[in-house]
Amino acid sequence: MIIPRSIGTILASLAAALVLSALACLLPDNPYQRFQLVDGTLFEPLRRGYERIHFDPAPIDVAIIGPSKTLLGLSAPGIEHTLNQAGQTAHVANFSVPASGRNVEWLMLHEAYKIKSPRVIVVGVYDSPSFYGHPSFRFVAPARDLAIQPAPLLHNYFKDLAYLPARQVLLAFARVAPGLTGLRDHFDPATYANTRADFTTGSFVMEGKTINMALTVPAAVLAGQTVVEQKATLLERLTRRFVNRGDEAVYMDQIVREADAHHSRILFVFMPVYNRKGELADRARLMAHGTLLDNADISDHAEYFENWEHLNHTGATILSDRVAKAVAKLLSEPAKS
């Protein structure tokens, strides 16, 4: 069969585009500049997390990972202070970032183990796990981890992969001309010092909304904010059954493997929402891999919430104290072999 010239030209153009895209994905980058791609966004804590790992000489004994519930609900300085008062000298770092997606949580843990030696990993868990990957993963993950993921057909895979060539071209240019891209090739201690590390106190703006952690919200207002959990679509249920169990399960497995490989203990912390006591997803499976701290009782107390999904300073103080006591027990146990 003779292929018409126009079709042949289109196919040749597509092939050339694919080859160029593949070559672009192989361009080297500066990891620190990758993590600056989220500056000015909701995901900026990731950049500070990278700096805490690679440029801050303080050790990390306890690493916290999770979404905004753990970012606003667990105070690393508060946990550290309680541990130190109890005679457990330990340094705590909170690598949580707003939005759901275990892939970026695994990535931060993997990054931490390159330089530091966390002995306890605190993982925020909840009753409605996300089937999707984190929206920041395409910005900060190494090219290899975007192209080769631990399970097929993860929801964000093709969207992440489509972004990769343009990202690598930008980062390759940033390596030779950082001033033109606004992506620094060196650590700035002043920027690091002035970036918020503890979100459980004070007032700040997130996604254009001012959050006041000292706020106490009436129960009626919290009840009006509550969102009914959406059931999984048929496609999602079929994919979980026949392909994989989604980002939550796949990357939670990665988190457990990472912790086990470095002989770290895991503390799973149930992060409550107001007036909803849903059953914790995969409770038995989580308990098989670590210690579970169940905080469902907090759900009844409107005075502990800044909004229906997030604790206020009072709630965060109570929960951080509970976590500190659980972590102290784990730190006192013999090291895992």
Features:
single chain, 49% helix, two-stranded antiparallel sheet, 5-stranded parallel beta sheet, Rossmann fold, 337 residues, 9 strands, alpha/beta, globular
Question: Could you please describe the fold and organization of this structure?
Answer:
With 337 residues, the protein is α/β, with parallel strands linked by helices. It has a single domain (42-132, 188-332), classed as 3-Layer(aba) Sandwich (Rossmann fold). Helices cover 49% and strands 10% of the residues. The longest helix is centred in the N-terminal third of the chain and has 21 residues, at 5-25. The chain is globular, with a radius of gyration of 22 Å. The chain starts with a helix and ends in a 5-residue tail after the last helix. The mean pLDDT is 90.
**Helix segment tally:** 16
The CATH superfamily is SGNH hydrolase
Q: Which segments are poorly predicted (pLDDT under 50) over 5 or more consecutive residues?
A: none
**Class per helix and strand makeup:** alpha/beta
With strands numbered from the N-terminus, the spatial order across the biggest sheet is: 2-1-3-6-7
The rounded distance between the terminal residues' Cα atoms is 65 Å
Q: How many structural domains? A: 1
CATH architecture: 3-Layer(aba) Sandwich
